[in-house]
Specification:
about 500 residues, globular, three-stranded antiparallel beta sheet, 7 strands, mainly alpha, 19 helices
Length: about 500
Amino acid sequence: MCPYVSIVLLVLTVNTAASFKMPNDGADKLLNADERIRRKGDELDNEYTIETKPAEFVHDYARVMSKSILFYEAQRSGELPENNRIKWRGDSCLQDVVAENNGRKVYDLTGGWYDAGDNIKFNLPMAWSTSVLALGFIEFMDAYEKAGLMDDMIDSIAWPCDYLLKCHTKIGREFYYQVGDTKVEHRLWDRPEDLTHDRIAFKVTLQDKGSDVVALASAALASCAVAFRKTGRNDISNVDEYARNAVSLYRFAKNIKGLHPGQKYVDKWEDKLVYAAVWLHLVTGEPRYLKEAEDLYNEYNLKGRSWAFSWSDTREATKLMLYKLTGKKMYTRSVMNYINAILPINNPKPYTPRGLYYRSGWGSLRYSAGSVFIALIAAKYDLSPKVYREFACNQTNYMLGDNEHHSFVIGYGKDPPCSPHHRASSCPELGVDCLYRNAFSNPGCNHHELTGALVGGPNENDEWKDNRQDYVKNEVACDYNAPFQGAIAGLLELEMNGELPPACYILKEPV
């Protein structure tokens, strides 16, 4: 008997659909949450049926994961290692150093990842992306093992962590959170290897506010240490240093509560402090950090539903981690409120005609990927596993090309993007001048394939063009790929265990 693929997301009886109708007066009133969301996963799972048709293929999840790791290698700044696999990239921005006290003290800030299609290093989204990649690595490590990607993944997330260590220039007192001035860098369209100007670096000290970025740096270092220890390997350097600095950065973050200077896109810091406290409990084993995380969670009233899981709001991952550590239903109720709110059985409005969960026009796929990542971890914890996995399959299949058009992952699937808004890959070979006419305005594909990158995505009507000049739909970013890669790993683990839902099967063999 053939596997089956879903062609209609979710079909409810009239009475059930009415009982799950979403009101318009606020997130926490969704579904009369106190009653409905407390139901066990199996009860919710049994309230829908799926129309299906025969299929026999699934996407090559291991290949997608491998390509995503390559994307992060293409984002590397600094002196590249001898095993660099991105041959069109070279050493870059080796001038990212800071001199203080009239040059008597010099800090090396080379390394890390370029944030997106630009050549700036933003430590807040970089740290969040690192922690999300590490969380996915921890939760779905069997998938990385099966795919033969353990070494690649360790190298991948160690790269930003080693850089974040450098940015912690004065232990518990100073942290550099950005290298490169947006007013300067965004005016330039050039490969990072050709940048020779002195780049401004921005920091926070005890005289500033900045617990948002410092707490996320703490979480990133702690998460990498936890992940590396879980591998059981003894040859990974800096693990203990990651843990020590994570503790110091967390204490620093508590002393500078507030948003870091110049922040326009983050409106809260409290969630990041709690997120870091949970990671500190995991890396140190000390119960006091878990208690502090729970106390702060309640003090800051973080139970509300997130607008989206992203670097501006870490609450949903925190809730799942706290539930895993404590078993308290208050956390499951809250995270299920978030996931259930976006399921089509409850709220069909935020979906495109072809079935993408759509939250915002700028980088629409990152929000779908973030929701899928949270849903798959929740399903692993036996929270509505059938419903949440079906949702994950439908969304990831859309991203990988099952949307009547094309893949949104460069180098994978049917008619994938080839012209992302990305400076380095758009430029010709090293040694050839990178100019607007042969790079930004080049009517063809980028000169180099930015393998594995998830582009921004379509608008609310599934409309999208492969146009590097449209940064809203075609930029790539470290934070786009982080939850996406974790979700793909989650699906591979389901496939390995024979638990892949019918909705994940596709009609044609993947390209």
